[in-house]
User: Fold this.
Amino acid sequence: MVARRLLILFVASFGSLAAYAQASYDLRAATVTLEGYANVTAGWRADDNQLDSALRALVVHSFADDRRIGARLVVESSSEDSFEVGEATLLYFNDLGRFEAGDRRGLPDVLLGYAPNNFTFTGAEYGPASGRSLDPGGGLVTAFLDRELAEQIGSLSVLGFAAALADDQSAKIIFVPQKRAGFLGGLSFAPNATDQRFGALAQAGLTREWYWSQNVVRVGGSYSYASANADGIQDLHSANVGITMTLDDSLMIGTAVTYNGATAAGVTASINYNTGPWTLGGFVQAARAEGDPELHGNDRLRAFEAGASYRLDTRLRIFAAVYVFDFEDEGGAGPQRQQDDAVWMVGTRVTL
Assistant:
């Protein structure tokens, strides 16, 4: 079994060396950019391997007064799903900023490349930066757990990493103002959240960055409001605040807190270090949530992750990580009771 997994990683890693980098084409007043990724991860705790991949195209047309219109289409695939449209977005750019309409994450990420989202402050820099990731709430670790346990831990692991429903992919309208004096904001509205417990979803975020020498400090936060769409469910009010400090372009320290009122809260702290082709790091996390409202007690999660990656090429990275968790279902009284275990993973990240 171990030999088979290593063979899959070997073929995926070295076969990808022939892949092309991001491709951009100028067609008179329009620019077309194509890019993609493939992540393959093997978990020593489960028999299956996880594959996440995507291709995306960005088309931008310029016209008078430096105004632009465009569209972005993303086609994704995973171990559970065949290829499907993950995003279809229309874009409009002017002096105020960027306006978007389509199915995508609310608070903005970058249009090109795979940089971390500006409204998250902790993460696993050694893991995949696209698709399911090793970040808290990133979904890669829980892919190796039983479905029911994965859903419960997944809903907790986002707390302290981002505001609730930060990764919502429903149809929405988004506004990203121009970055000014280190400030970057974002607003979005969706008439119906992907989570069927909620209806309308509004999100807002603001960060500020300071630069000096080779150092950066970023502070800020985000807020999600969603109207309840089911009996027994309260309207969602979720706030996340955090700070990230990067020193000498190598050491990154971050911490963040999410607070959903009486129903849920969490805190996460991370540290990552880059030296040459190596990236080392980890995070610790503690979170609690109401869980099943018909049962007494709260779901609780305490987790730790550590990992390392090695960059073989500008497009290719191999990584390994271990995730250790202690989960209590309704304070130990729920169907899952108390679960503590570790998930070991090794994988490769390829950016095309």
In short: The domain at 2-351 is CATH 2.40.160.10 (Porin).
